[in-house]
Design brief:
The protein has 3 helices and 6 strands; from the N terminus they run E-E-E-H-E-H-E-H-E. With 117 residues, it is α/β, with parallel strands linked by helices. It has one domain: 2-Layer Sandwich (Transcription Regulator spoIIAA). One of its GO terms (molecular function) is anti-sigma factor antagonist activity.
């Protein structure tokens, strides 16, 4: 896709290589931006992505609505043998995934380079 979208405090870009999409999000991912993020990620899946890597390196804030978006995409992909992977290099965001137990649901990478395997 290689497109850029954004509203409010969020920007999202993606690069697609075959069935693998790498999505780089930046800014604030919250109740105001979650619908756009959901539509964006589901569009990637609709267009054939079976592996979606969401890079949260430049995300300053993430709320429970965003967690719901990630879970919905994960559930959809798992049904067809796909996967959602996350890049979460910052301890403050990683802690959210640990507290909620989502670190056991998603494969979480410490850096974008780790996710390119």
């Amino acid at each position: 896709m290689g497109i850029e979208k954004g509203s409010g405090g969020m920007q999202v870009t993606s690069a697609v290589d075959g069935s693998r999409a790498v999505v780089k999000a930046s800014g604030e991912l919250d109740v105001a931006t979650a619908p756009e993020l959901r539509a964006y990620l589901h569009e990637l899946v609709d267009n054939g992505a079976s592996t979606v890597v969401v890079d949260l390196t430049d995300v300053g804030f993430l709320d429970s609505t965003t967690l719901g978006v990630l879970i919905s995409v994960h559930k959809r992909l798992v049904e067809t043998g796909g996967v959602v992977e996350l890049v979460v290099p910052h301890a403050r965001l990683l802690r959210i995934f640990q507290i909620t137990g989502l670190d056991r649901v998603f494969t979480i990478h410490a850096s974008p380079a780790d996710a390119t395997v």
